[in-house]
Amino acid sequence: MKTFRRSLLLLVFVALLIVGWRFAHQNESAVSVHYLFGQTSETALWKVLGLATGAGSACVALVMGWALLRARFEARGYRKKMLAFESEVHQLRHLPASGGKKAGKG
To answer: Domain segments of the chain: what residues?
Structure first.
């Protein structure tokens, strides 16, 4: 099973290399990018697309990382509250029973 996983991982890696090479070969025309503060010099289209994809992925990773971090802290707070409630229930279950007197009569 371990050999199969390694072989599959190697196959996927080689396939990604081939796809990346073909993508770069098919998109090697020179372009210049105009953005808010200026423009870039002539560069290959595959480099521009790769940079845009990487920048977008980094932005998504930051946003999702922040959301996951907030969710983790929120879950931690809920776990602490749950443990406190469970402790209180445990204490209430083990209270000694009162004598024969009922409250309010006496």
So the answer is: 2-93
4 by Cβ neighbours in 10 Å (0-12 / 13-18 / 19+) ranks as exposed
Is residue 43 within 8 A of residue 31, CB to CB? The reply is: yes
Integer Cα distance of 60 and 66 in angstroms: 10
Q: Is 24 exposed, middle or buried (0-12, 13-18, 19+ CB in 10 A)?
A: middle
What's the predicted TM-score (pTM) here?
A: 0.59
Dihedral sign from CA coordinates of 81, 84, 90, 91: negative
42-82: per-residue pLDDT in tens?
888 999 899 999 999 999 999 999 999 999 999 999 999 99
Report whether 45 contacts 27 (CB < 8 A): yes
Residue 23 half-sphere exposure, CB side, CA atoms within 13 Å?
A: 12
